[in-house]
Amino acid sequence: MDVGCNKGYFSGIALNYLAPGFGNHLQLLYAQHIKSNKSENPCGSCSDCQEPLPRHLPTVGQSSVDVYCYEPSHVLFSGLASARDTVYGLPENPVQGKGTTVRFHLRQKAVSNTTGTALFPTESAGEVGSLGNGSPVNVTTLDVELSEAGMPTYLDVLKIDAEGFDPVVMAGAYHLLRSHRVGLLAFEYHSLWFRSGGKLRLCLDYLEELGYSCYFDGPRLVKLSGCWHHELEIDRCSNVVCAVQGSPYDDTLFKGSFIAQAHGVGVDGMTGDAMEALGRRARL
Question: Per-domain residue ranges for the chain?
Fold first, then answer.
């Protein structure tokens, strides 16, 4: 599940592992974003579209993958729909012959800790839109969404990029997280968290209480849970990845951490291996 889907590039990275028969999903999506001309920066602010294929890709992907993509911007949603329809087809009629059936579900909603409506810059094509101003949009929570008929009961991967409202989204996923129905959780942490009043330490305490271990993401993961120091509250753009404590995902993340490698018990590139370790049917 991809909350704050924007151009779909995070989902594209995951699909490179799960559905390699398509080729480089980032380039496939980028080509469609160029054609639709719906985005201010079709490649992404971090040049996401230029991300190379991972070194260790499976030769055969999953038999089936469901992606659930949440994006409240009308402009970006329109571009996503155009790219989705061309690359993957509609969920009820997906593209065949690529080795993996990818059902790419789009939801034009904002995700928070409450339901109803809120203001959002729906006509913005940028990457930093957030609740608080603009036009009315529907707002939901992850707990509500996953209680709906037809939605999955378990998420292999949950990514949140809500431009400062990531802690609020996680608060609205309390029951989902408490019941450990998320295998891997990834979210963005940076100075925009002031928009929701969030602090990394408070967020980590919340996730630890729910049974998750978290790391700063990177070539070598930096363990956060149980290793807190006030200097880690850096307020700079970073990615955090978490897994259920004691799970195979948690073990995989630990082996890719700086502390494990410093003691000679880890290996490089474990974030990729964690993706490869997903079950036979993945839901993003």
Answer: 2-283
Q: Please provide the DSSP assignment of 67-83 as one string.
A: EEEE---HHHHHHHHHH
- 228, pLDDT greater than 80: no
Residues 71 and 9: their CA atoms lie apart, in Å, by: 13
What CATH number has the domain spanning 2-283?
3.40.50.150
pLDDT digits (tens, 9 = 90+) for 90-125: 999 999 999 999 999 999 999 999 999 988 765 565
As a whole number of angstroms, the distance between CA 110 and CA 268 comes to: 36
pTM for this entry:
0.88
Q: How confident is the model at residue 269 (pLDDT cuts 50, 70, 90)?
A: very low
Q: Which residues of 216-246 are buried (b: 16+ CB within 10 A; e: fewer)?
A: bbeebbbbbbeeeeeeeeeeeebbbbbbbbe
